[in-house]
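One example copied in:
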Amino acid sequence: MLFDYKAVSAAGRMTTGRLDASNLADLEMRLKRMDLDLVTGKLAEHRALGGPRRVPRPELINFCFHLEQLTRAGVPILDGLSDLRDSIEQARFRSVVAALIENIEGGQTLSQALEAHPDVFSAVFVNLVRAGENSGQLPAVLDSIGQSLRWEDELISQTKKLLLYPSFIAIVVSAATIFLMIYMVPQLKSFVKNMGQTLPPHTQALFFVSDLLVAYWQVILSLPLLAAMAGYLLIRRNPLARTWFDGIKLRLPLVGVILKKIILSRFANTFAMLYAAGIPILESIRATEDIVGNQVIRLALERAEQAIREGRNVAAAFRDAGLFPPLVVRMLRVGENSGALDRALLNVSYFYTRDVKESVGKAQALIEPILTLFMGALLGWIMLSVIGPIYDVISKLPT
């Protein structure tokens, strides 16, 4: 059971967190081992909507870095984890590290203890740590995982950079359009109609849209939200809908190509780490299927895995799956023939990462003028529809 607790340290510092325990007495014992005295404890409330709080990626990066440094210096795992637990600020992750210490003291290995927290440590993370334990190269593996997490953090920032500006502009344009249509255009409508002039089609269209928004603005604003919620639920519960939606994302103009490159770059980097750690090719591919986050690419990986299982080489399997362009397939073939497949995969990852950075810059350079033109055309339509009839009347007045 999960308990939310308040405890005080020997230095008198109050701390809060969440910890697994069978009852309050067990909770108190576990906190004692952490040099904490229990103040209050209660069963954690079930998070029906949000689920458990996720551990931020920077916390995992620091975890890998500090544990790698300590193990490389010869510090025992338990001592290293104890030092880490005392230095972690986030209550959720501090509780997880405390549970790791408990499990390792109970006789589990580090990878077995990590495996008990799949919401924090992915299957790839656990497999790499297990490979590091078996090969005696745990510090090198932890360093590799930390570098991969930092690289993923950079990729996510690139994705946010690509989507943030267009989203902001879209919100501003939508808000400005709704304001003009609901507030400004109705005030000008009566003035234009009182001039007794036949209105041009574009002015009539503007007034029709304005009347529609004024009369049904609640419906028009709520429909997209309801449609988004219904689509989200359908995608979550229906595998075919999820596959269709993921395919649409990959075919989006500008964004779709970049998104595919980001996913393939992440796949190649993770595959290279797993293969370099000594995990067989088929197991490495299977482990990466859960991290790509796109059902279309996941199905392509499953086809490639099946082709390799049937005797095809790696380069031919990925070529037939339609995942990589010919240049990348050639790199894989050279790496496979030379026995340096992990290095070839890292080159693939570098190839896509550099391409993503360049593509994000080009996409932003294209998106900004496109959005500017769209906003200018929208405002021009409104101004022309309202001012045009007024100008026609003024021009017909006797001089």
User: Anything to note?
Assistant: Strands lie at 2-9, 14-20, 36-43. DSSP finds 15 helices and three strands in the chain. Residues 138-193 form the longest helix (56 residues).
